[in-house]
Please model this.
Amino acid sequence: MQGRTKEAAIQDAEEAKAIVAARLSVNAVDLLQLFEDFTQFKSKTLASNSMIDYNRIQNKLRKCPHKLVREAVYVMQWLVSDHNGTSTSSLEKQWKLINACCKWGVSTGKLQSNPFDGLSNLIPSTKNTQSQDEIKPFTNSERKRVIQAFYASDRYSYYAPLVEFLFSTGCRPEEALALQWKHIKEGKITFCQRLTASGVIEQGTKTQKRRSITVNSRILSVLNEIKITDALQNDYLFTAKKGGFIDWHNFSNRAWKTVLKSFDDIEYRNPYQMRHTAITEMIKSGNDSVVVARWVGNSPNMISKKYLGDVSDIVMPDN
Model:
């Protein structure tokens, strides 16, 4: 009897150890590796330009100090703290994709449960919440002041030509950062490639293979000022201070945010509003929406739906 009791006790202890071990192993899966597997799975069905967000999240997870899926709460808290509070739209997108990744992990047997489900409530709302698609352009006066502030900045004047270029042409940031000198000929600029979030040049723009615009004398002057004497045709127009591609995320959260917050009377907007501003000013200046759509690589319907700001101050023409 005592022998059986001792054996039973040993068995109970072993079962307890197994239970503890099982609990500890639940979702003891590397989140980055899981997301990389998920990205590989999604890459079979998504267009290459749709993979930008997946690559951006992978870069985030590489920096995150919390590595396991079961550390979901800590991962979300880190994402929020690393985001500097400028917007919640990208945080929501990050959570949605990570959540979708873990759902996929459960369906494929890689995970026992999805600890990210329901954690969107950890994303705070801020007064600066603003997505790329929100229409909140700068006034023409504000636009000029922001450009001048960049030129006058001791720390960030290096980016002033890029800011003026974006405010004037209305092109997408990833298109501007992928421009090479060979794309500029006789006053025309051809947009035919883009810089992805992972730092890779891909052919074509977001909506078309290529488009060309004829720029005004001011933009040509800006480009001539930044062009070095021995620039090669394959050199890029807008580069980082130490060479290589400009990190748009760092520009947005350092240079842009710092300069914009130096104004007491200009409401903060995300840098994508430079595109909204340029498009709105083009329309307000009397340009046909069909022409503007060709300039910026959108349809007239998308121009009016997602980019055109307030035009209530335009006086109706006399009949």
